[in-house]
Amino acid sequence: MKTLYLHIGTPKTASTAIQSFCGANQEILNSHGYDYPDLGVRYPYIRWQRNAHFLVGDLRGKERDLEKEEQLVAECFQKIYQSFQKYDNVVLSEERIWLEGIKSKEKIWKWIDRELKKGIFSVKVIVYLRRQDEFIYSRWNQQIKAAVGLFSPNYVRKWEEMLEDLSVPSIDYYGILKRIEKYVGKENIIVRQFDRKKFVGGTIYADFLNAVGLAYSDDYTIEQDTENISLTKNNLEIKRIVNGLPGLNETSNKILRNCLYKCSELPSDDKKYNMFSEQEMRELLARCEEGNNKIVEEYLDGEKKLFDDTYKAEEKWTPDNPGMMTDVIRFSGSLAIYLLKEHEELKHQLAELKSQLKEHDLVIDSGEDDTGFLNKKLKQPLTKVGKKVKNVLMK
Questions:
Q1: What is the reported pLDDT for 103?
Q2: Distance between CA atoms of 336 and 361, rounded to whole angstroms?
Q3: In the 8-state DSSP scheme, what is residue 224?
Q4: CB-hemisphere CA count at 13 Å for 318?
Q5: In this predicted model, what pLDDT tens digit does every residue of 174-227 receive, in sequence order?
Q6: What is the DSSP string of 279-339?
Q7: What is the CA angle 361-366-367, rounded to 5?
Q8: CA 278 to chain centre
Q9: I want to staple 100 with a disulfide (CB 3.0 to 4.6 A). Which of 53, 105, 168, 284 is the partner?
Q10: Can you spell out the DSSP letters for 347-362?
Q11: Buried b (16+ CB within 10 A) or exposed e, 19-29
Q12: How many other CB atoms sit within 10 Å of the CB of residue 96?
């Protein structure tokens, strides 16, 4: 029987790197009987390599079009069946599928179950798990960093506010796995620890290939800079505050975020801090201990613990830490440099335009500002066109 490998994250476990790797190595995957298909579906801000996004993507006009979403899912599975005609294995990836499990939304798995009942393929679900405190921070980090599209309260939510709203399902990995298990069976869930010390072959690429039944070799291509860029904790706090500015749109958000990315590449003491104190981290892990132990027992043969519980920071982060003032100044300076460069580029473009106008015998009055000159010169051809249109209409 054919096999569908469905990689579901979790978020911030090198999913982008895995997706880019699979997309860049189609030829060698095909040679081994595997396909990582581009299903031809496009969503705003979503790379095509997230080829299972059709299972979670919203289709909206003024409201969600649920009927159209159902139709799109059916169409995508038809394309998957076309891949199965040529290959024995198809690989799909989308990290948001795990988040839907947190919300207890089982629509995705009902769709999968519906297709499984057709008897054309079996499924293997691959999930990478990282320690709950790291997952919580990464999820909050992503919300603050992204801030695209319509405004959401999550984009300006303080760390402490987010922790107050923390739901039990978001840290109950075992509970989410059991819900998935109802549809695909325990034997078809492949749990991996997101820990470089645990990776088969020492890399996420070799480990993922191992999960789908392949071995890594030098034939594969690894693209550089495929991982999501992270902001330091101070720059993330700056971004959180900026997210609440009136008038922030997608264009300005991108500019501000890119400035913060550049600042985050500069030397800082970010690794000195953790968003949790050691006591808070251990209290959180204690809440998760029973479920984590069951995951080890049921899904990870030979392992003693699901996660290394070492506290790797020196202290808990606070917004008034000694490095914050430096990072605020760096951000302000970076933004000023960007705007100055944009200004110089616009001046250069204007100078080129003026030069081109001169070449066409359009002489600029030295006493007239650029705006007045352009208005006058643009008005002349428009007036001529207007007269011609008037003459035609009067005939």
A1: 77
A2: 38
A3: S
A4: 6
A5: 999 999 999 999 999 999 999 999 999 999 999 999 999 999 999 999 986 545
A6: HHHHHHHHHHHHHHHHHHHHH-TT-S-SS------SEE--TT-TTHHHHHHHHHHHHHHHH
A7: 135
A8: 29
A9: 105
A10: HHHHHHHHHHHHHTT-
A11: bbbbbbbeeeb
A12: 20
Tell me the whole-structure pTM to 2 decimals: 0.84
CB 1 within 8 A of CB 121: yes
Encode pLDDT of 261-315 as tens digits. Answer: 999 999 999 999 999 999 999 999 999 999 999 999 999 988 999 999 999 999 9
Q: Which residues fall within 8 angstroms of residue 244, CB to CB, at 6 or more apart? A: 155, 156
Instruction: Check residue 389 and give its pLDDT.
Output: 43
**At 395, is the pLDDT very low, low, confident or very high (cuts 50, 70, 90)?**
very low
At residue 156, the 3 state secondary structure works out as coil
Burial of 316 (0-12, 13-18, 19+ CB in 10 A): middle
Contact status, residue 301 vs residue 190, Cβ threshold 8 Å:
no
b/e for 160-186, b at 16 or more Cβ within 10 A? Answer: eebeeeeeeebbbbbebbbebbebbee
Distance in angstroms (rounded) separating the CA atoms of residues 188 and 181: 8
Instruction: Give the per-residue SS3 of 84-120.
Output: HHHCCEEEEECCHHHHHHHCCCCHHHHHHHHHHCCCC
List the one residue out of 21, 70, 69 whose CA is nearest residue 49.
Answer: 21
Backbone angles phi, psi at 326, to 5 degrees: -60, -40
Measured CA to CA, the distance from residue 171 to residue 167 in angstroms comes to 7
Task: Report the greatest alpha carbon distance in the chain.
Answer: 92
Q: Report whether the peptide linkage leading into residue 371 is cis, meaning its omega lies within 30 degrees of zero.
A: no
List phi, psi (to 5°) of 93. Answer: -145, 135
Angstrom distance (rounded) from CA 103 to CA 251: 31
User: Which alpha helices (H) appear in the chain, and where do they start and end?
Assistant: 15-24, 26-31, 66-86, 96-102, 107-116, 132-146, 159-164, 168-171, 173-184, 204-211, 233-242, 250-264, 278-299, 324-359, 370-394
CA nearest to 135, candidates 193, 191, 182, 205: 193
